[in-house]
Amino acid sequence: MKKHLIFSILSVIICNAVFSQSDEKANILAVEKSTADAFTKHNVVYLNAVFADDVSVISSKGESLTKQQLIQFVGNINSVVVTDLQVKIKGTIAIVTGTELETGKNDAGAYSNKYKFTDVLEKVKGQWQITATQATSMDQ
User: Fold this and answer.
1) In DSSP terms, which residues pair with 88 in a beta bridge?
2) Cα–Cα distance, 55 to 75 (Å, whole number)
3) 70: closest CA among 81, 79, 78, 59?
4) What DSSP character marks residue 131?
5) pLDDT at 17 exceeding the cut of 50
6) What whole-number distance in Å separates Cα of residue 66 and Cα of residue 48?
7) Residue 121: is it exposed, middle or buried by C-beta count within 10 angstroms (0-12/13-18/19+)?
8) Check whether domain 2-137 has CATH 3.10.450.50, yes or no
9) Domains of the chain: which residue ranges?
10) Distances (CA, A) of 66 to 53, 61, 105, 131
């Protein structure tokens, strides 16, 4: 009887942990999609909130950017679409990899770029925030 009770309690704890992590993955995926949408809609308020003040940004050209430099670029963007998202959660840290298709305009004219990216998110005061991001160009 005791063994069955202990097994039942452990099963409930494990199921809760699995569902909890699934919920967190859904929250993180929502942050990633909302961030792409914010770039598309030039929602600087959201971008200021979702990126940590001391975010580490490595561009597809290998440049280190500040949060302010990243947000200044928003006006050039027409759309950002993220796909193939994979999430790994390690406590209050999440690692997201995926593919991004970005279109926009710059001094050279219209562009369309495809990237593989990695975002590192940290859960701060109950909210997921991007603390590091790196992109690698898939265009040859």
Assistant:
1) 95
2) 20
3) 59
4) E
5) no
6) 12
7) buried
8) yes
9) 2-137
10) 9, 15, 21, 11
- Are 93 and 107 in contact, with CB atoms under 8 Å apart? no
- Which three-class secondary structure state does DSSP give residue 97? strand
Distance, in Å, from the CA atom of 109 to the CA atom of 85, rounded to the nearest integer, reads 29
Spatial neighbors of 57 by CB under 8 A, at least 6 apart, are: 64, 65, 66, 67, 69, 70, 132, 133, 134
**Higher confidence at residue 55 or residue 2?**
55
Instruction: Please give the DSSP secondary-structure letter assigned to residue 101.
Output: E
Cα Rg, the chain, nearest whole Å:
19
* pLDDT tens sequence across 113-123: 999 999 999 99
DSSP 61: T
